[in-house]
Design brief:
heterodimer; A: alpha/beta; Rossmann fold; four-stranded parallel sheet; B: alpha+beta; SH3 type barrels; five-stranded antiparallel sheet; 2 helices; binds iron/sulfur cluster
Chain lengths: 388, 105
């Protein structure tokens, strides 16, 4: 079914359906009679798909689609990076996912620590990290980041009872609670949410019903193809226009109401939800996943001093970091184009903020695909009207 | 880390499956997959773990996106990059484990 040469997925898969959906979306927005409708997605892969296929060009001008805190790397808090750096600088072997290496802590990133001689390594899977612990006499700490989909993998490895030398520094985060925070933020324009398809594969779509009832914002679970995203946006706009908030599953080929029960049990057997900081967002009640007491023997925080080293970062680096707008971007208040550092002082080679580090960060995605502004004036790609 | 990657199960050994991803065989843990998996099934994988058995009727639609991504995408394409690192996650998925499928009540 692979047909090469076409530049966009919509042409490749089904141009007719794509354009029909784009038209339906335009109609839905028109019929709403609304000046502006703002919806948020909470998934780096959604932003990648939207940018990659140029979907913002197809969105009606009055529909604003913003990326919320959906990049697991970007929301890993500075304190958590500091803990990993502190461990590495104590001489402990620290393993983590590749994207985490260059995320700045308050003093330095893990990559900086590695340059100083610390033993820091990259793995693609938590299972790989556990395998390294088996082969090693010294303790190995896995700096575990990511949302529920990734936390489940960490949990499964711990349920398998790896050797005690395998330690987990959990910075895992749980998405549903942060949606509540964003929905209730003062000045939030977000009227509906696109939920990430593969996270919902684990949690099931039923989990959003309480959120919808409590906050009056509809949720549409979406896949990662252009047609999936357009279809989900259509349903979302319809629900917003009619003021009939519900949860709608627009990704039934992957997501069920109850989700993956086995994975949920694995997750909650090993982890408990507790409040904690998300970088740039807020303290999120129940937003952090930490090991339960029954797994304390694998908890790096129980065995090591993870309090941060206190050597101050350079004043220049601090000044730049103070101008980073990642938090505003993930809260839907700003776009990368609103950040004066975007593609100037802040580039993928020399990132100032975490949103420029990760392949799922909004700034990195916009930089990669040449997005210069949100929709509305997105038709002129390559021109950057809002960057001074 | 949001995107899972589908592959076809070649063989199953306890809670470890050998899965074919576009011609490359990799190991995938089955601890947390939602349904029993057998050779010939398609599963969705995330960081070395199968998180879902893809129903037969949905295999074609699910594979289409990835076929296009991997066939047409440039090295620098972020979505394709994430798919490729998911594939690498399955390279060394074997880890010590006592957990078996069905140990959860
Ligand atoms: S461009 Fe860089 S400095 Fe500006 S918000 Fe994004 S990550 Fe932060």
């Amino acid at each position: 079914m692979t047909v090469g040469g076409e530049s966009t997925m919509i042409e490749f898969r089904d141009a007719g359906r794509g354009h029909a959906l784009a038209q339906a979306l335009r109609r839905a927005v028109d019929e709403s009679g609304r000046e502006r409708i703002t919806v948020m997605h909470v998934c780096g892969s959604h932003e990648q798909a939207i940018a990659r296929y140029g979907l913002r060009d197809l969105f009606p001008e009055r529909l604003e689609v913003i990326m919320g805190p959906g990049c697991p790397v970007c929301i890993t808090d500075t304190d958590e990076v500091d803990e990993a750096v502190a461990l590495a600088r104590q001489g402990v072997r620290v393993l983590t996912y590749g994207d985490m290496l260059r995320v700045p802590g308050s003093v330095m990133s893990l990559a900086d620590a590695k340059r100083e001689g610390a033993d820091v390594g990259v793995v693609y899977s938590v299972a790989e990290a556990a395998a390294q612990a088996v082969a090693s006499d010294a303790p190995v700490v896995f700096f575990a980041t990511g949302f529920e989909t990734t936390a489940v993998a960490t949990a499964a490895v711990l349920l398998g009872e790896p050797p005690a030398g395998f330690q987990v520094l959990s910075a895992h985060k749980y998405i549903p609670p942060v949606m509540e925070i964003v929905a209730e933020m003062p000045g939030s324009r977000v009227e509906g949410f696109l939920a990430a398809g593969h996270a919902a594969t684990i949690t099931g779509w039923g989990i959003f019903d309480d959120f919808v009832a409590e906050h009056g914002r509809p949720v549409a679970v979406a896949g990662f193809e252009p047609l999936d995203i357009l279809a989900a946006l259509c349903r979302l706009v319809e629900m917003i226009a009619r003021a009939e908030p519900r949860t709608i599953n627009v990704y039934p080929r992957c997501v069920t109401r109850e989700g993956n029960r086995c994975a949920q049990q694995t997750l909650w057997r090993v982890f408990r939800a507790t409040g904690g900081l998300w970088r740039g967002i807020a303290h999120v009640p129940n937003g952090n996943l930490r090991l339960r007491g029954t797994y304390a023997r694998y908890d790096a925080r129980e065995h090591f001093d993870t309090s941060a080293a206190s050597s101050p970062s350079t004043a220049a680096a601090r000044a730049l970091a103070g101008r980073c707008r990642c938090g505003d971007i993930m809260s839907g208040i700003a776009t990368p184009a609103d950040c004066a550092l975007f593609e100037r002082e802040c580039t993928p080679e020399a990132p100032v903020g975490a949103c420029m580090v990760s392949s799922e960060g909004t700034c990195r995605i916009w930089q990669q695909y040449g997005v210069r502004s949100g929709n509305g004036d997105a038709a002129v790609l390559g021109v950057c009207p809002r960057i001074p | 880390m949001c995107l899972g990657v589908p592959g076809r199960v070649v063989s199953v050994d306890d809670n470890l499956a050998t899965v074919d991803f576009w011609g490359v065989h990799r190991e995938v843990r089955l601890d947390i997959v939602d349904e029993p998996v057998a050779a010939g099934d398609y599963v969705l994988n995330h960081v070395g773990f199968a998180i879902r058995r893809i129903p037969d009727a949905e295999v074609t639609a699910t594979m289409a996106l990835y076929d296009e991504l991997l066939a047409a995408a440039a090295e620098a394409d972020l979505l394709a990059q994430d798919v490729r690192s998911e594939l690498r996650a399955n390279r060394r998925a074997r880890a010590p484990t006592k957990a078996k499928r069905g140990t959860l009540e």
